[in-house]
């Protein structure tokens, strides 16, 4: 097996791992909406696998898949295999790939630590505390408020990109050519991207507020965004709908695991 083939297989495993994470987070959201429990985030979803049968094996596979996905995204950001950086839009896409790659490195590391028993489950692996910590670190740097504001801008751009995908369904062009794409596949993807756009936009608001107030406690991640929806008027239905959207995104991630067109610019 060549290095390129191995990297491609890991990337596909990564799409599947991402799908499982979104299924779990979506189910947590629906359960919280129906029974009033606590919502979770993607790191908490990974931690929940630790107590399942063959949890160590599942976590090891998740770590490998998420690491492969991170490698692919970072490779896209660094080498630009599809020559997207010739425009400002392309440069923003590469920046988005870099951010996605870094985020999935963190998720892969979380899964690996749990698989090797270097940390414990039970809600202590969630991303909210780490988000507060690194935001506080940014605020302590020169021009720290500006740095946090840049993070907010990046999240706004990511939310806009997700919303655009939900609106025009152009993401199906990233699937392998050769067969017509069923309409229901596009619909599932649109629902999933729409849910992600909403949550990314809320997280962007949290970071913008933290930058304005110079207060790291104002930030929040996915769990905080879902909890915010839960507290709104009609929040039960908003949260349940978002949870269904995340499950739809998980389903589409599985479609991508099989049919996504993947370009890996690595030596053979």
Count the domains: 1
Number of helices: 9
Biggest sheet statistics:
none
> What general form does the structure show?
globular
Structural class: mainly alpha
Mean pLDDT: 84
Distance between the termini: 9 Å
| Radius of gyration (Å) | 18 Å
One letter per element, helices H and strands E, the order comes to HHHHHHHHH
**Share in helix:** over 70%
The low-confidence runs, each spanning 5 or more residues with pLDDT under 50, are 120-125
Number of strands: 0
Strand content: under 5%
Looking at this protein, list some descriptive labels.
268 residues, mainly alpha, 9 helices
Descriptive notes:
With 268 residues, the chain is mainly α. It has one domain. The protein has 9 helices and no strands. It is globular. About 2% of the residues have low confidence.
């Amino acid at each position: 097996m060549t290095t390129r083939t191995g990297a491609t297989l890991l990337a596909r495993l990564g799409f599947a791992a991402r799908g499982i994470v979104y299924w779990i987070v979506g189910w947590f959201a629906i359960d919280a909406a129906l029974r009033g429990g606590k919502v979770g985030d993607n790191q908490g979803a990974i931690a929940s696998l630790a107590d399942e049968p063959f949890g160590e094996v599942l976590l090891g596979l998740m770590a490998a898949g998420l690491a492969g996905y991170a490698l692919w995204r970072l490779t896209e950001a660094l080498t630009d295999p599809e020559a997207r950086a010739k425009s400002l839009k392309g440069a923003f896409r590469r920046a988005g790939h870099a951010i996605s790659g870094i985020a999935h490195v963190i998720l892969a590391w979380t899964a690996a630590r749990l698989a090797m028993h270097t940390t414990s489950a039970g809600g202590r692996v969630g991303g909210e505390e780490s988000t507060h910590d690194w935001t506080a670190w940014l605020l302590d740097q020169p021009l720290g408020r500006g740095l946090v504001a840049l993070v907010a801008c990046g999240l706004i751009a990511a939310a806009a990109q997700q919303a655009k995908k939900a609106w025009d369904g152009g993401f199906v062009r990233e699937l392998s050519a050769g067969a017509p794409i069923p309409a229901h596949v596009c619909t599932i993807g649109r629902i999933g991207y729409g849910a992600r756009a909403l949550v990314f936009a809320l997280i962007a608001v949290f970071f913008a507020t933290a930058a304005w107030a110079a207060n790291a406690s104002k930030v929040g991640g996915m769990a905080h965004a879902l909890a915010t929806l839960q507290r709104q008027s009609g929040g039960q239905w908003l949260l349940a709908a978002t949870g269904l959207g995340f499950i739809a995104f998980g389903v589409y991630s599985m479609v991508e695991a099989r049919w996504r067109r993947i370009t890996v610019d690595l030596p053979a």
